UniProtKB/TrEMBL annotation:
<dbReference type="InterPro" id="IPR004843">
    <property type="entry name" value="Calcineurin-like_PHP"/>
</dbReference>
<dbReference type="GO" id="GO:0046872">
    <property type="term" value="F:metal ion binding"/>
</dbReference>
<dbReference type="GO" id="GO:0009245">
    <property type="term" value="P:lipid A biosynthetic process"/>
</dbReference>
<dbReference type="Pfam" id="PF00149">
    <property type="entry name" value="Metallophos"/>
</dbReference>
<keyword id="KW-0479">Metal-binding</keyword>
<dbReference type="InterPro" id="IPR029052">
    <property type="entry name" value="Metallo-depent_PP-like"/>
</dbReference>
<dbReference type="InterPro" id="IPR051158">
    <property type="entry name" value="Metallophosphoesterase_sf"/>
</dbReference>
<protein>
    <submittedName>
        <fullName>Metallophosphoesterase</fullName>
    </submittedName>
</protein>
<dbReference type="GO" id="GO:0008758">
    <property type="term" value="F:UDP-2,3-diacylglucosamine hydrolase activity"/>
</dbReference>
<dbReference type="GO" id="GO:0016020">
    <property type="term" value="C:membrane"/>
</dbReference>
<keyword id="KW-0378">Hydrolase</keyword>
<feature type="domain" description="Calcineurin-like phosphoesterase">
    <location>
        <begin position="62"/>
        <end position="120"/>
    </location>
</feature>
Length: 133
């Protein structure tokens, strides 16, 4: 095909339609992922920390870290119940929650959330934010 030759109208329309479809598909795909897939995705990673300077108190200890629940947005109380059951099944030695429990309103599921979080147990005990028991 000669690069200097102008393209036909039908070829132009085919190419334009493909580009438009691609431009429309990208945000729809991203929105679909962020709305229906990622919020339901609970991922468990198992890591062994190979630090030689790690204090002996942490040797062979199981640490569970969870965060970004955003309760009431994509993550309902039933999903929190499933997560708590999953964490308990792991029988951790230490549990670390690193933020964003509620999305906007604490009031809607306050008592259920407290009840579920109180089911979490680890040998060192429980401690709230800023060192508060």
């Amino acid at each position: 095909m000669d690069p200097n030759r102008p393209i036909s109208r039908s070829t132009f329309l085919k190419i334009s339609t493909r580009w438009l479809a691609g431009l429309l598909a990208a945000p729809i795909t991203g929105l679909s992922y962020s709305r229906w897939i990622e919020p339901k995705w609970i991922q468990t990673n198992y890591l062994q920390l190979p630090y030689t300077s790690l204090p002996r108190a942490f040797h062979l200890k199981k640490i569970v870290q969870f965060s970004d629940i955003h309760l009431d947005f994509h993550f309902g109380i039933h999903r929190l119940e499933q997560l708590i059951a999953r964490i308990r099944k792991l029988k951790p030695d230490l549990i670390c929650f690193t933020g964003d429990l509620f999305h906007a309103s604490v009031k809607s599921n306050e008592s259920s959330t407290i009840r579920l979080l109180s089911l979490l147990e680890a040998p060192p005990g429980k401690m709230g934010g800023a060192g508060q028991p």
